Amino acid sequence: MIDIPADTAALIFDCDGTLVDTLPLYLKAWQAALQEVGGLDVEAAWFAGRGGYAEQMLLAAVEKSFGVTLDRPAIISATRRRVRETIEGLRCNVPVITVVREWAGRLPLAVASSGSREVVEASLAAIGLLDVFSAIVTIEDVEHPKPAPDIYLLAARKLGVDPRLCVVFEDSHEGLKAARAAGMMAEDVRPCSEFRIAP
């Protein structure tokens, strides 16, 4: 059970790995796109610990690890397309979704994700929650990705609330660091992860 402080003005949720388990979809999509566009075979183990990376951060790490220069736009486009094509298999993080449903209509809710808008909105639509959030902020909306605080500060601004009165739900080191740098309270959802199909 997650307690929400009494003075909380808004709740802000990461998407991938927090609301929904897109990480397995992204893993297969990245592997396929890197093979198809870049001619690279990247083992699943390489991606371990990089689940919170924004697209450009991940590709920079691939280039450094494998000593290559990639066609980043083409790989990103192929990856997003493959994730969208498999979105029907998406699973929810039930404890976090329960918080969303409990507080919808009682507090302003936002999503602040390092993912692309097309995938984030498709993910939320797939689990029937797209219309629940008053603001959706994605990697296209900010100059600096997590762990910079930009994405969370923009979400608070769009909701019209003081960042210090926001509670953030996150599943990555980068995201938690970003939320705290924004002056927000941060809940690490990893201990309560229970991915399964939402009822």
TrEMBL record:
Q: SUPFAM superfamilies, from UniProt?
A: HAD-like (SSF56784)
Which InterPro entries does its entry note? HAD-like_sf, HAD-like_SPP, HAD-SF_hydro_IA, HAD_sf, PGP-like_dom2
Pfam families linked? Hydrolase (PF00702)
A molecular function annotated in GO for this UniProt entry is: sugar-phosphatase activity
NCBIfam families attached here? HAD-SF-IA-v3
Q: What is this protein called?
A: Fructose-1-phosphate/6-phosphogluconate phosphatase
Organism, per UniProt? Acetobacter oeni
- State the organism's lineage: Bacteria, Pseudomonadati, Pseudomonadota, Alphaproteobacteria, Acetobacterales
